[in-house]
Amino acid sequence: MYLFDVNIFVHMHRNDSSEHEKVFDFALDVLQGTKVFGYSPLVLSGFLKVVTHPKIFREPTDFNTAIAFTESIIEHPNSRPVLPGEAQQHIFRHLCYQLKPTGNFFPDLYYAALAIDSGCWWVTCDEGFKRFPGLDVKIL
Questions:
Q1: Are residues 99 and 121 in the same domain?
Q2: First-to-last CA distance in the chain?
């Protein structure tokens, strides 16, 4: 099952994104297919933070449009919420001790542990996710 990073939803939603076409085409194949895909509620909140932020976009997405996008993901018949399981915190701690993260590295490490714990492929545009041992990652 695929589990999408914040950047995938942002690029998919924002047609002014340089990665929009590539990401949109991939996501459309997934969304129109029959396979189940996952979403993290934390990723959706990150999406809302980014697309509505006036310091990120000169014309940020309005609240109603942004919420409607997240609701379309949640309500999609093939989507499933992916929540931290029993092993997620153990995986997170293990990766922390192994990789010695600092600063902005921690949220990525959290998402990597979530994907590993849930057995999902993490789909992202961020090459940095290749550094996490045990993570199945698809870079767009």
A1: yes
A2: 16
Closest by alpha carbon to 121, among 103, 137, 105, 106?
A: 137
Q: Which residues of 70-86 are buried (b: 16+ CB within 10 A; e: fewer)?
A: beebeeeeebeebebee
Look at residues 86, 79, 104 and name the one whose alpha carbon lies nearest to residue 1: 79
pLDDT at 31: 87
3-state helix, strand, coil in the chain (%, to 5): 55, 10, 35
Task: Single out the residue in 46, 65, 81 at which a domain terminates.
Answer: 81
In this structure, the answer to whether residues 24 and 38 fall within a common structural domain is yes
Please tell me the distance from the alpha carbon of residue 128 to that of residue 108, in angstroms, as a whole number.
Answer: 9
Domain that holds residue 72: 2-81
User: pLDDT 10s per residue in the chain (140 long)?
Assistant: 999 999 999 999 999 998 999 999 998 899 899 999 999 999 999 999 999 999 999 999 999 999 999 999 999 999 999 999 999 999 999 999 999 999 989 999 999 999 999 999 999 999 999 999 999 999 99
Domain total of the chain: 2
Dist CA 138 CA 123 (whole Å): 5
